[in-house]
Specification:
The complex is a heterodimer of chains A (about 120) and B (about 110). Helices cover about 0% and strands about 50% of the residues of chain A. Chain A contains no helices and eleven strands. Chain B has about 110 residues and is mainly beta. Classes of the chains: A mainly beta (about 120), B mainly beta (about 110).
Chain lengths: ~120, ~110
C-alpha cells in the first residue's frame, strides 16, 4: 500500500487556463475527499465521493470546478478558467467508511499557483 | 454545522518544554474529535483521536482528552522535540454530513534546540 498519491505535486498556470489534478486513493478505500488549503488556514472541504457517486459538494465549489471518480478508483479535480484566487494547496484524502469515528489518510497535495 | 476554534499561534518552544495547544468546539451531539499534524511539505497525518466524552487519545507522546463540560480537546505533550515542529490542526465531523471534517485554522509549532 503506497498511500494516497496526488499528481502533480506542483502546478503553475496562467490565469484563464484550465488545470486538472489527479488523486489515487488507497485501493480498498471507498470514500475519496477533496479539500483546499490556503496559506495559514486549515483545509476546507470541497467534495467527496463514495465509490463513483459524488455525495456532497461545498458551496466553495463554483461552476468552474468539477470533480469525477468514474470507476470508483482514482479521481480528478478540474478547474476551468483559473483565477488568482484559486492559488492554493489541493488535498485529496481517502477512507474506508466505517462511521464518523474514523479519520482519513491524506495525500501530499497539489500546490497550484495561478500567475 | 459543527465548528472548531484553535488557539492563535505560532507557538515557539525550547526542546523539552511542555506543550499545550488549545482547541474548543461547537457541535451537535458528541462527535469524534481529531488532531492532525502537517510536517513541512507533506500532507496531513492523523495524530490522535477520541470518540466519546472523557476519552483520552494518545500517540507519539501527545495526548488530548475529550472534555464535554468545557467542549474542549486540548493537545498536550510533556517534552517536545525539534522533530515535533509542524502545523497542528484540530478537527471534527462536519455535522450534517459524516463525509467531511471541519478543521481549525492550525497552530504552527516551532521547537528550537
Amino acid at each position: 500500500d503506497t498511500g494516497v498519491s496526488q499528481n502533480p505535486r506542483h502546478k503553475i498556470t496562467k490565469r484563464g487556463q484550465n488545470v486538472t489534478f489527479r488523486c489515487d486513493p488507497i485501493s480498498e478505500h471507498n470514500r475519496l475527499y477533496w479539500y483546499r488549503q490556503t496559506l495559514g488556514q486549515g483545509p476546507e472541504f470541497l467534495t467527496y465521493f463514495q465509490n463513483e457517486a459524488q455525495l456532497e459538494k461545498s458551496r466553495l465549489l463554483s461552476d468552474r470546478f468539477s470533480a469525477e471518480r468514474p470507476k470508483g478508483s482514482f479521481s480528478t479535480l478540474e478547474i476551468q478558467r483559473t483565477e488568482q484566487g484559486d492559488s492554493a494547496m489541493y488535498l485529496c484524502a481517502s477512507s474506508q467508511y466505517r462511521g464518523p469515528n474514523y479519520g482519513y489518510t491524506f495525500g501530499s497535495g497539489t500546490r497550484l499557483t495561478v500567475v | 454545522g459543527n465548528s472548531v476554534t484553535q488557539m492563535e499561534g505560532p507557538v515557539t518552544l525550547s526542546e523539552e518544554a511542555f506543550l499545550t495547544i488549545n482547541c474548543t468546539y461547537t457541535a451537535t451531539g458528541y462527535p469524534s474529535l481529531f488532531w492532525y499534524v502537517q510536517y513541512p511539505g507533506e500532507g496531513l497525518q492523523l495524530l490522535l483521536k477520541a470518540t466519546k466524552a472523557d476519552d483520552k487519545g494518545s500517540n507519539k507522546g501527545f495526548e488530548a482528552t475529550y472534555r464535554k463540560e468545557t467542549t474542549s480537546f486540548h493537545l498536550e505533550k510533556g517534552s517536545v522535540q525539534v522533530s515535533d515542529s509542524a502545523v497542528y490542526f484540530c478537527a471534527l465531523p462536519g455535522g450534517t454530513s459524516y463525509g467531511k471534517l471541519t478543521f481549525g485554522q492550525g497552530t504552527i509549532l516551532t521547537v528550537h534546540p
